[in-house]
Known about the structure:
The structure is a single chain. By secondary structure, the chain is of the alpha/beta class. Helix 7 (183-194) crosses helix 9. It contains nine helices and 13 strands. It has helices at 9-17, 38-50, 61-70, 87-97, 112-120, 133-147, 183-194, 202-210, 219-233, and strands at residues 3-4, 30-34, 54-58, 75-79, 103-107, 125-128, 131-132, 157-160, 163-166, 171-174, 177-179, 240-243, 247-250.
Amino acid sequence: MPVDAHVSGRRRAVLAQLPRIRRADGSPIRVLLIDDESTLTSLVRLALEYEGWHVETAATGGDGLALFRQSPPDLVVLDIMLPDIDGLSVLRELRNTDRITPTLLLTAKDSIDDRIIGLTAGGDDYMTKPFSLEELVARLRGLLRRAADAVTHESSLLTVGDLTLDEASYEVTRGGQPVSLTTTEFEMLRYFMRNPRIVLSRAQILDRVWNYDFAGRASIVDLYVSYLRKKIDADRAPMIHTVRGAGYILRPA
């Protein structure tokens, strides 16, 4: 079976106690699941419908792209191995027109190279088959929380030096030039900008940005910091600095 359908009573109880997540207008969260394994899609659909979410499925990359364009979802769950189009090519096509919709990749591959390629292509998270339905739901809830994190400041604008982040429009600029970020990159930068001149440890960043233990690998933080540096600090005076043995700090150039 491609998915671990055995859900522990304790973890099911924890998920059952979490508040239901809905769209701002009160309608169900819309999920697009692109995967050609019928058993997997049936199980995932049941798990997400239990959350009260609406799920559309596609067995090919072409059908998935058509559904996405026809009715953009709130979340995308995308298998990397598809019968017609490589899942990473589907993801790049999605990112050409949409940079915000959180996307979780499903893969039967477990090498670090495959993970890096998927995350670099614009994926916000990934899971390796077989996986737990509970964990899938928890990660998708985390992606939604990060994407729609309530703005608690009087202004939606965060500014550090010549770097500006708009929490309402999800727009980032440095020196007046737009910077394109994935959902996870945006959330990490927002965390840095809410805590300027403060050293943030890898554990703190993992807890705030991913909201779970990423298989015990703090290296995912280093990976995303490198992505941010390429986009924020490229050909400019650096703002993101490494504090050896402690973590990272953001300060004006």
